[in-house]
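User: Could you check the structure of this?
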Amino acid sequence: MSINYIPSPSHFKNYFTYQKYPDIFKPTNKVPVSKIKIDKKQLSYANEISKNCVVEIINNFHIEGWEPIFISPDYYLIDGQHRLAAARKMKLKFIDVVIIDNHKLEN
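Assistant: Sure, the predicted structure tokens are below.
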């Protein structure tokens, strides 16, 4: 049996900040992994992906640590490089995200 989606725990998606600013932070379930793009200029931390960290996420997987990744409205990754790499390595087709509209943060 192949798993194509592992939902993030609801407490991550119900975080107070997201509820307080729903027009800026939008938790979204089951976004296709294939739609997520990477541009290092848009990452909050443009560090290199550590293969050891990705393997650690997979080998020591615990649902309570499976928080959503953060993306822009046009599907560019903002934060969560290692979680996205782990999802791709696990061949997940979908991942939970928080869409952050940085333009609204700046206004």
